[in-house]
Amino acid sequence: MSKPIFTNKAILQMSQLGLSEPQILDTFNTGDYEEWSIKLTDVKGYNSVKKYAGYEIGVAYIQDKSRVYKITSVWKRERR
């Protein structure tokens, strides 16, 4: 799998949450994922979530028409 592109929104969220590119790529590549779609469009997206000691990281991404993955959003939360 080729390296995904990060949107400006995702880069800003990474900065605000103190997340690094290696952490996001690890979640993207090895996290548990689910598929979602935007109604009335052909856009399919995916979420990938990975649990770490004490917290979880989530990555939302889409695959464009040229089959390139774009990370559109990231999040971090304390584990429940």
Describe this structure in words.
Strand 3 (44-52) and strand 4 (55-63) form a beta hairpin. The mean pLDDT is 89. It is globular and about 35 Å long. The protein is 25% helix and 45% strand. It has one domain (5-78). The chain is an alpha+beta fold. It has a five-stranded mixed β-sheet. The relative contact order is 0.27. It has two helices and five strands.
Summarize the structure.
It contains 2 helices and 5 strands, in the order E-H-H-E-E-E-E.
List its traits.
80 residues; alpha+beta
Radius of gyration: 12 Å
Low-pLDDT segments, ≥5 res: none
Morphology call: globular
Q: What is the straight-line distance between the termini?
A: 31 Å
Strand content: over 45%
Q: Which sequence of strands runs across the widest sheet?
A: 1-5-4-3-2
Mean pLDDT: 89
Number of helices: 2
Q: Please describe the biggest sheet, giving its number of strands, its sense, and whether it closes into a barrel.
A: 5 strands, mixed
Percentage of helical residues? 25-40%
Q: Order of helices and strands, N to C?
A: EHHEEEE
**Number of spatially distinct domains:** 1
The assigned structural class equals alpha+beta
Q: Find the count of extended strands (DSSP E, 2+ residues).
A: 5
Write the layout of secondary structure elements.
Elements: E1 5-6, H1 8-17, H2 21-30, E2 32-37, E3 44-52, E4 55-63, E5 69-78
Parallel strand pairs: 1-5
Antiparallel strand pairs: 2-3, 3-4, 4-5
